[in-house]
Amino acid sequence: MTSVLALAGCSSGGDDAASGDTAASACAPSTGKVDLTFTSWIPGIEEVVKVWNDKNPNIQVKVQTGPNGNGGTYQNFFNQLKAGNAPDLGQIEYDTLPSFRVQDGLANLAACDIVTGAKDKFVDWTWNQVTFGGQDTVYGIPQDAGPMALFYRADLFKQNGIAVPTTWAEYAAAAEKVKAAGGYITNFSQSDVNQFAGLAWQAGGRWFGNDGSQWTVDFSDAKTTQVADYWQDLISRKLVSTVPPWTTEWDNAYNTGQAWTWVSAVWGANSIATGAPTTKGKWAVAPMPQWSAGDKSAGNWGGSSTAVFKSSKHPYEAAQFALWLNSSDEALTLLNQKANLYPATKSGATLPALTTGVDFYGGQKIYEVFAEASTQVSPDFVWGPLMTKTYADAADGFKAAVSGQGTLAEALKTAQSSTIQAMKSQAIPVKG
User: Fold this and answer.
1) CA–CA distance, 291 with 76 (Å, rounded to integer)
2) Mean pLDDT over residues 256-267, rounded?
3) What pLDDT, in 10s, does the model give residues 105-151?
4) Which residues lie across from 216 on neighbouring strands?
5) How far apart are CA 67 and CA 306, in angstroms?
6) Please, how many CA atoms are within 13 Å of residue 4, restricted to the half-sphere of its CB?
7) What is the pLDDT of residues 178-227, one digit of tens each?
8) Interatomic CA distance for residues 432 and 328, integer angstroms
9) HEC sequence for the chain
10) φ/ψ of residue 303, rounded to 5
């Protein structure tokens, strides 16, 4: 995981730490043959890059694979930046980009004409994730997205005469009926705070802000508190289970019909199919429940970018490759086939693999639901510069809350205080 020590070790400090390098550096084509290095953890990425290499003999990309970001790759990136031997490009999730941004580790690609002209190819909110709302900054190329929807056991809802909830009030009412039928409407993740962030995102919560000179941190805004209190109520009434996510126990809950729904991202379709194989044909997908009837808002959980590190000697060619990787039909098709990535481009939703019925979900064209959800994600959600620590502190509080020690809202307040203190200790300008 990205440690505070690693972040401090390569911090540039000072006022610039709030916004990184705001002036785009020179971005012009190199002369002669160019060799690039690219680090990613995407399954099958070597096959995708080979297509590029076969077509571009003068710009060759060497792939370096490793564990997922928080599994070690991010720490390696920080170590490499400090040692001066970082790769040209790296896969970085949206919620971690600010960590590299405040350490001045990313190339600002806004001076690359091929990049600024590509903005309209991508779903608006994904572009905001890599530009931080600034017109003169581009710190990566959007790769994939995680729009959220409601996975639900269509057979169990029908058999028990329970309507599929369209609002959060209906979801809570359905939870009571599901409990009476011997199940749980879902499992509340006691350690994966990313899901809760997506729920807060949908509701209108805004955890971080940056005005160009300093950060603001607020995990207790009215919308986030509304979400925290809602789920705290379900936990207190034992209407949801609270087993650790991504465990055999978690899989079994879905595989045996103990858990009936999962509010998750598009990639969750594969998670359910692999974790609960005996339930094939019994699931369906619907839009996320809304806080007010008739609203159309969705959250996002996950998603990555392809960033160019500031030390790259060939930012133009690196950007050229990153754009091909994340916007060309051939690359997006392969990324979906090899790794089930859901593209961040507007046209990606029309890929053949994403417009046909899915057997596991009874033949439903589930990706149409996610395509619609992606258009409903607010572009205004900003991640902070120390999300690994924020997640860890919040998770500690969440684990305590599900065991009856404190509440989710209290856990968020504690995480807010610790995040602010950690930012101050690293000379990251922050209000509070």
Assistant:
1) 41
2) 97
3) 999 999 899 998 999 999 999 999 999 766 689 999 999 999 999 99
4) 209
5) 16
6) 16
7) 999 999 999 999 888 999 999 999 999 999 999 888 999 999 999 999 99
8) 44
9) CCCHHHHHHCCCCCHHHHCCCCCCCCCCCCCCCEEEEEEECCCCHHHHHHHHHHHCCCEEEEEEECCCHHHCHHHHHHHHHHHCCCCCEEEEECCCHHHHHHCCCECCHHHCHHHHCCHHHECHHHHHHHHCCCCCCCCCEECECCEEEEEEEHHHHHHCCCCCCCEHHHHHHHHHHHHHCCCECCECCCCCHHHHHHHHHHHCCCCEEECCCCEEECCCCHHHHHHHHHHHHHHHCCCCECCCCCCHHHHHHHHCCCECEEEEECCHHHHHHHHCHHHCCCEEEECCCECCCCCCCECECCCEEEEEECCCCCHHHHHHHHHHHHHCHHHHHHHHHHHCCCECECHHHHCHHHCCCCHHHCCCCHHHHHHHHHCCECCCCCCCCCHHHHHHHHHHHHHHHHCCCCCHHHHHHHHHHHHHHHHHHCCCCECC
10) 110, 145
215 is written with which tokens? 């950060």
Count of other CB atoms within 10 angstroms of residue 377? 26
The dihedral formed by the CA atoms of 173, 174, 180 and 184, expressed in degrees to the nearest 10: -120
Instruction: Look at the block and give the residue holding tokens 């936990």.
Output: 235
Q: Is 430 left (phi over 0), alpha (psi -120 to 50) or beta?
A: beta
Rounded distance, CA 66 to CA 77, Å? 11
Instruction: Give the C-alpha separation, 170 to 163, whole Å.
Output: 9
Residue type, 177: K
